Amino acid sequence: MNFPSELKYTKDHEWVRLEGDEAVIGITEFAQSELGDIVFVDIDTVGDEVNKDDLFGTIEAVKTVSDLFMPAKSTVLEVNEQLDANPELVNNDPYGDGWMVRVKLDNPSDVESLLTADGYKELIGK
């Protein structure tokens, strides 16, 4: 499995790519493999301020629905609209075209407290 070292990770299986005071967030390769075939991504929080660990959307696989949690207090700027027509991008390219949201972080340094790739691998036992 692939866990890019430049990303930060959460215990809820989201990844975060810091871009100045903004971040791009998605779910990890491990999470998408556990969920199976993704059929729908529901995120309706654009423009909303979302607190750390609060729900910002859901992701639906063939057999289950999973919640998406915000890794740091942020305002949701953009949702990946490609996922409306192609939710399978999450399965095929979780760290690239399968990203979920772009956010403006209240405090970019909050991301530093998240897990490193090695810490995430340890969490999931890989």
TrEMBL record:
Cite the Lipoyl-binding domain residue spans from the record: 22-104
Give the co-factor note. Binds 1 lipoyl cofactor covalently.
InterPro entries reported in the protein's UniProt record: Biotin_lipoyl, GCV_H, GCV_H/Fam206, GCV_H_sub, Single_hybrid_motif
Q: Reply yes or no: does the keyword DNA damage apply.
A: no
Which positions carry N6-lipoyllysine? K63
Name what cofactor the protein needs: (R)-lipoate
Sorted alphabetically, which keywords does the UniProt record give? Lipoyl
Q: Which domain of life is it from?
A: Bacteria
HAMAP family recorded for this chain? GcvH
Describe its assembly: The glycine cleavage system is composed of four proteins: P, T, L and H.
* Its job: The glycine cleavage system catalyzes the degradation of glycine. The H protein shuttles the methylamine group of glycine from the P protein to the T protein.
PANTHER family registered for this protein in UniProt = GLYCINE CLEAVAGE SYSTEM H PROTEIN, GLYCINE CLEAVAGE SYSTEM H PROTEIN-RELATED
Q: Family assignment?
A: Belongs to the GcvH family.
Task: Indicate what this protein is called per its UniProt record.
Answer: Glycine cleavage system H protein
Its lineage reads:
Bacteria, Pseudomonadati, Bacteroidota, Sphingobacteriia, Sphingobacteriales
Q: Which gene encodes it?
A: gcvH
